[in-house]
Amino acid sequence: MAAYCLLMLTCSVFVSCNDWLDVNPKSQIKEEDHFDREGGYLDQLTGIYTKMTTSGMYGLNMGIGFTEVLSHTYDINPNSSWRYPNEFNYTDLASEAIISHIWENTYSCIANANILIRNIEKADANIFTKNNYHVYRGEAYGLRAFLHFELMRLFACAPAMDGNAKGVPYVTTYSTDVTPQKSVNETMQMVVSDLLTARDELAYDTLAITSGNTQTDPTFQRNRFNYYACCLTLARAYLWMGDTQNALKYANEVINQVEDKIHYYFNWVHYTNMQQSNRNELDAAFTTEHVFQLVINDWEDIGNLYFTKQGGTSTLNPSDATVQDIYEVALGYGNDYRYLKGYEQDGEKRYMAKFWYIDGSHYNNLYPLMRMTEAYYIAAECLKNTDKARAIELLNIVRENRNLSQFPLSQDLTADQIQQEIYKEYRKEFIGECGTLFFYYKRLNLSDIKGSSIRGSKSVYVLPIPSNDQEFGGYTN
């Protein structure tokens, strides 16, 4: 389904996590009836989050699968179904299908965010309890920005490549009109504008106003696009645009929250948890550090397929040599929690185990879209030329909490060496997570992609817009 006609062909909104609500058929609830109560807005948001957990999005292809294969931290079997994305071959039929599904599903979520925005803008605020009018409005604007930014990272040049190239269509209304493309720079400004609106509204979120640690609070919003997820997305977006001043500003909002020992919501995985001998008690994915996560209810079928021997040739796994290179085991860093607890034997081979589904575990089904360490890396990159001591300190804080306190980084590092340490951290921290390392390469327009013989270029970094949208929408990139 082409994005330009997505709204015409998918005239629907979410009613629950499984049902669709069409505006026209008599058998369905009408839009105005759906949004005449507070629960309709929550249902709409729940539907978006649920759509995001499907295999066409973060349940596989935008999570551990297609986009992460592009990062080249897995060693892909040449007979695997992942062979073509591993070769950056986007014209193979299987790759084309995945790319098309990513495009369609993401724009479907955006369309449904726009439906919510359209209705909440004219809603009676009195139908909402507590601060939910502001929170739901903030979530909708935030998700619209977050998802457009995801499409920008996949289907458009990074600003460092060509800020005047065409961005993806930034759809802000639910209509049948064709949304024109703007430049990369203009489109990123639209992302930021929506995020700033979302941040103002999400200041009413319980994450921003509740005092004390709410790790066990039922209103804790980690599973939704919350205030700090918005701040971290702003930091990520500004860094993408090369605006280090604003990137640092919003990264520091997250860092300050982590370092506040009285009012905190995200905290480092505790060393006592890393000492658990039973894997079902081990928080191998460091879930206490997730800023924004999805609950993927069928994760057992995904995590225990692609990350164990069950996956056969389609397994997503780095070889032992790659793992030891990533975690610098030869330098004595073998006690790094990410290495020590993130891999486990299954038969004759060791597999990445941080996302295994383990019976009886409290940490099942939780997949991170953003984690707090990214704020530390963003801040360090922003400071590497102006405050090297603080940049190194930020990286050492992460290393200390990864059990590397005996190996602090030298205070004499140059800016280039700090950047190299940041790169190493991206490889260690985000393996299996949404193509984060691939986007690091792309943001900096790097020609060298570790693990690939193919050089970084526009043909590698910019996925082709699906053919239907090229043909009927006139979209190009």
Provide the succession of SSEs.
Answer: HEEHHHHHHHHHHHHEHHHEEEHHHHHH
Q: List the strand order in the largest sheet.
A: 1-2
Biggest sheet features: 2 strands, antiparallel
Tell me roughly what share of residues is in helical segments. 40-55%
DSSP summary: helix tally: 22
Report strand %.
5-15%
- Rg over alpha carbons: 22 Å
What is the SS-derived class? mainly alpha
Straight-line distance between termini: 18 Å
Shape estimate: globular
* Number of strand segments: 6
| Overall pLDDT score | 90
Low-confidence stretches at least 5 residues in length (pLDDT < 50)? Answer: 1-28, 211-219
SSE arrangement:
Layout: H1 6-9, E1 12-14, E2 20-22, H2 31-34, H3 38-52, H4 66-69, H5 83-86, H6 93-121, H7 132-155, H8 159-162, H9 184-202, H10 206-209, H11 227-241, H12 244-259, H13 271-274, E3 290-295, H14 299-306, H15 320-326, H16 337-340, E4 343-346, E5 349-352, E6 366-371, H17 373-383, H18 388-400, H19 415-429, H20 436-443, H21 458-461, H22 467-473
Antiparallel strand pairs: 1-2, 3-6, 4-5
Helix pairs in contact: 3-6, 3-7, 6-7, 7-9, 9-11, 11-12, 11-17, 12-17, 17-18, 17-19, 18-19
